[in-house]
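User: C-alpha cells for Glyoxalase/bleomycin resistance protein/dioxygenase, please.
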Amino acid sequence: MIGYVTFGTADLARAATFYDAIAAEMGTSRMMDFDTFIAWGTPGGAAGIAATLPFDGKPASVGNGTMVALQAKDKEQVHRLYKIALTHGGTDEGPPGPRGDSGFYAAYFRDPDGNKLNAFIMG
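Assistant: Done. Predicted C-alpha cells:
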C-alpha cells in the first residue's frame, strides 16, 4: 500500500500554489508543512502527495517514465483537475478524454517542475 508520493521541486512556494489548488479540488489540504517539505492528504486516508527541496542540495529532477495518477470522483472532476493544473503553472500532456475502450478516462499534465501526473476514473 502506498502511503504518499514525493516530488522534488526547485521552488517550494510555486509547488505549494500548484498542489494547494489540486488538493482543494480533491477535498483535502496540507497535513505537514515545513521549510523544505509540504505534504497534502488526509491522515488515515488515501495516499498523499508531497513536494520537497532535495535533501542532498542537488537540483530536483524528473523521473523518466514516472507518473502519479490521481483518482477522480467523476469525469467532471477530471476536467476540473486538468484545468486547475494548467491554471496554476502546469503544462498539458494530454487533454481529458477516453483512453482505449476499457472505460479509462483521463487527463495528463505536468506540475511546474515537470513531474507528470494524471487525473482519471475507471468505468
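User: Anything notable?

Assistant: The beta strands are 4-8, 29-33, 37-41, 48-52, 67-71, 91-99, 104-110, 116-122.
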